[in-house]
Specification:
The protein is α/β, with parallel strands linked by helices. The radius of gyration is 17 Å and the shape is globular. 34% of the residues lie in helices and 27% in strands. The longest helix is centred in the C-terminal third of the chain and has 25 residues. The chain has a single domain, classed as Rossmann fold (3-Layer(aba) Sandwich), CATH 3.40.50.170. It has a 7-stranded mixed β-sheet, with helices on one face.
């Protein structure tokens, strides 16, 4: 069984890159936690495949380098090689967060940063995998489940299939709509992302197959 160990970053801020295609609401929570001193980390850049993605404007407003890379005419791997080149210019990159990123990563990208890439998904995986944003919350409500939540998972070659790192649960109310449910889940997403950054800074992470273990650093 495959085993991987990730040791904490000590003596400097954790260096984070963010890939996103939407508004980046979860990103703001991370920025605020860094600013308040809750997190000992820095966001080195935000990269998007959409020129008009508000996550880029959010980055600029907070003094973070915002990079648009046009995917037009490029294969998945060709695009990812350009992204990797940008990240390599800003080494070291300790953690890559996918926040509303509407692209599937190539094997080339995953191999370059394996076990350093986390994706936040708005359901309790493996339930309701594959969708994004409001379509996931609508599917949850249509199915009639009583609890939902979010999953922060390591990225592998599949879609929403990587080892689960952190999950947070949200109760589904009878009067919820996709929009109200999204708001509740998003608050839990922000908690999961902040918790994960602290773990990368302070703990040992051991991945054995699909199992992720958090160990104290001594």
């Amino acid at each position: 069984m495959e085993s991987n160990i990730i040791y904490p970053v000590k003596g400097r801020p954790l260096r984070i890159a963010v890939l996103g295609s939407t508004r980046g609401t979860d990103l703001q929570a991370i920025i605020d936690s860094i600013r308040s001193g809750e997190l000992y980390a820095e966001i080195v850049c935000v990269i998007s495949n959409r020129r008009d993605a508000y996550i880029l404007e959010r980055a600029r407003m907070n003094g973070i380098e915002a990079i648009f890379i046009d995917p037009k005419g490029l294969s998945r791997e060709e695009y990812d090689r350009i992204v990797v080149d940008e990240l390599e210019k800003r080494k070291p990159i300790d953690l890559i967060l996918l926040i509303g990123y509407m692209r599937i990563l190539s094997k080339f990208f995953i191999d370059r940063f394996r076990w350093r890439i986390l994706n936040i998904h708005p359901s309790l995986l493996p339930a309701f995998a594959g969708g994004m944003d409001l379509e996931v919350h609508k599917a949850v409500l249509d199915y009639g489940v009583k609890v939902t939540g979010c999953t922060l998972h390591f990225v592998d070659e599949g879609v929403d299939t990587g080892p689960i790192f952190i999950q947070k649960v949200v109760d589904v109310s009878d009067d919820d709509t996709p929009i109200t449910l999204k708001a509740k889940v998003q608050r839990r997403e922000q908690e999961a992302l902040i918790e994960a950054i602290k773990i990368f800074q302070e703990k040992i992470i051991k991945i054995e197959g699909r199992h992720v273990k958090i160990l104290n650093y001594s």
